[in-house]
Amino acid sequence: MVHGTNEGTATVTSKPRISLDAMGGDNAPEVVIQGAERALEDNPNLELILVGDQAHLEPLLKKTRLLKGVAQIIHTDESVDPSAKASQALRAGKNTSMWKAIELVNNGDADAIVSAGNTGALMAMSKLQLRMIEGVTRPAIASFVPTKSGRCCVLDLGANLECDEHNLVQFAVMGSAFSRFLQNIDRPTVGLLNVGEEDQKGFDYLRTAAETLRRDDLPVNYVGFVEGSDFSSGTVDVIVTDGFTGNIALKTAEGVAQLVREFLRRAFVANLFTKIAYLVARPALARVRSMINPNGYNGAVFLGLNGICVKSHGGTNAFGYANAVGVAADMVKNGYLPEVSQAIATANLILNEEKRDENG
């Protein structure tokens, strides 16, 4: 089991204990309960702890087949307001379901936390309680997007609007470890998002980060600059960028997916002939919808924290929430924290050497 993750002593476990912010999200607690049930169907070895209002949770829990026999409830009748600023949540949120769910990880009573609640509050509370991995300057939000060849990890998706070259190098190290564990790739290829693939393109800090990432002694398989089109082409396994650019790119990709689905719907209801064509094409269209369904990629991770924290989309359904729980479980089972801590330590030695060289 994983104990005391805030001290960097996490170990591999086959029975992950996941604390769930049961009151966080647009459709909580119903979707949390339904998603937890689906997660148990996929992984019966999970230990799930529901943090929230017992009066609301118990009636829902009784309707489940698997969850009611194994889930533990930790009661609190307070939750984080979806519109609250991070600073407000920190000041007044010590008794909320989000804070208490994170606290379980901090105390070693859970191995990971999943929440569909307020993103800013979740980041702030997680940073305060779990703290950062030694040597990490900033956390990053990482998730996957679908590509022609499978899926690609993208970070940062909004935690840091501005970044320097050292932040990007650390993101590359953390994203590489994240992708390696969740995609089972020995040496994930990593690219820096830029306005072109040529070495002379982009801001100075991007070119400086690229020079560092090319070093053979850095634990990153860096292949060069990538462009926006590489999000869908599958050119690399990991795309690294600042949070401002990454968040816009992700929201644009989600919007395009919704647009494609809407265009297909309109096309097949246009007339009798297209409706008949839909009946013939329905199996293929179902596969397309599945591949571009954002719920199938739900579960962004706050990388850089000294504990595992997974952010579910606030408006996700049970399928999407189960995916987020699965991401947390996979990270626990594969021992992500010790691995990334070692990789960051190696990267920081290299960065510190470069700083000393720059300063003469």
Short descriptors:
eleven-stranded mixed beta sheet, disordered N terminus, alpha/beta, 360 residues
Describe the structure.
The chain is α/β, with parallel strands linked by helices. The protein contains 12 helices and 11 strands. The chain has helices spanning 30-42, 54-62, 86-92, 97-106, 119-130, 165-183, 204-213, 230-233, 243-268, 272-292, 318-333, 336-358, and strands at 17-21, 47-52, 72-75, 112-115, 140-147, 150-155, 189-193, 221-226, 238-240, 300-303, 308-311. The protein has an 11-stranded mixed sheet, with helices on both faces. Helix 2 (54-62) links the parallel strand 2 and strand 3.
Number of helices: 12
**Quantity of strands, as a count:** 11
Q: What portion of the residues fall into strands of 2 or more residues? A: 15-25%
Gross geometry: globular
Structural class: alpha/beta
**Largest beta sheet: strand ordering:** 3-2-1-4-11-10-5-6-9-7-8
**Cα distance, first to last residue?**
47 Å
Low-confidence stretches: 1-11
- Largest sheet features: 11 strands, mixed
Mean pLDDT: 86
Order of helices and strands: EHEHEHHEHEEHEHEHEHHEEHH
Provide a concise account of the structure shown.
The protein is of the alpha/beta class and 360 residues long. The protein has helices at 30-42, 54-62, 86-92, 97-106, 119-130, 165-183, 204-213, 230-233, 243-268, 272-292, 318-333, 336-358; strands spanning 17-21, 47-52, 72-75, 112-115, 140-147, 150-155, 189-193, 221-226, 238-240, 300-303, 308-311. A hairpin with a 2-residue loop joins strand 5 (140-147) and strand 6.
